[in-house]
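Hi P.,

Sorry for the delay on this. The queue was packed all week, but I finally got your sequence through. Input first:
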Amino acid sequence: MRFLASFQKDLALAFRSLYAYIEILMAVLIVIVLVFIVPEDAPRQTPVFVHLGVEGALREKLLEVLEEESAAGATTLTLSDRPEDVRAGLEADRSAVGLLVSLEDGKVRYEFVLQGYESDQVRNTLQTGFLSEMVRSVPGFVDETRVTVLDRIVEKLPTRLDLLPILLVMNSAFVGLFIISAYIFMDKEEGSIKAFAVTPARIWEYLLSKVAMMLGMGLVTGLFTVLAVTGFRVHILLFLPLLVACNLFGSALGLLIASFFDTMTKSLGALYVAIIALGLTAVSYFMPSFSPFWITLLPTYPMLFAMRETLLAKPDSAYVLAWSGVFLVLSVGLFLLSDLRYRRTLTV
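Then the structure:
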């Protein structure tokens, strides 16, 4: 009964302050950005503008090679009559690349025209890819390359859905971490936590009511966001336990961080460091090739990929449920540490 009374009081106070509306506003902004601003699926092909300054059989062979590349789906090919048209095409489309081929002193000369922001790795890849296709057309060439496919079924999400896991984790974990800390400091300023020292109420009931309040808000905003963006594509029976686990983890971590400070101002440094550290995994999410061991140890790393699984047509249910269980256990551990901290230092 004491827990229920504390929960009702926290819920009423939450909607009297601005903090509760921050999470609601974040959810609305996420939906607006993903539905009305981000395209459903950004083009994955690279536009290539080509000028072939050669004639005869060589021109036909080059056209054959370029059309094969275009048919493979990696590029869209546009032939230009003049070199100036290639550069004009790059100015009109900042994602495009250009290729100029000419014949000088009996030798084929090729020149890639790029935007200027490409890395050396991208430039080398373009050059190697073009030359390898040319070499394949040489009579008698034998390709000794052997390709081993580790995962034959790699499902790609549309751009809009690919962004959703990051925004969901940010809103359910990061914002929850910040808001629950703010509520704790509000109570510290008002002396509510000190009052627990002279009442029969237990500190864990006070902390649990805060967590329950954040969980309720997180479930409402999380479900609203994912259903508004994906409809019923999301696997709701996998999404719900993961959303609960992420929300509880963020809230419990916020409680623990707040226990070491007495004002919001003093805690901002620690909160920002925690949020930035947890946010680093977004780099590996978009570039899986960059996944150093220390990033995989951050809790948001499996959070993001588990959240992504719930949006796939054929998710790895065991992976999602396993990590949901792990974060539930971690949440309980952080909550118990927070309870110990607050019982020992009610005025800190």
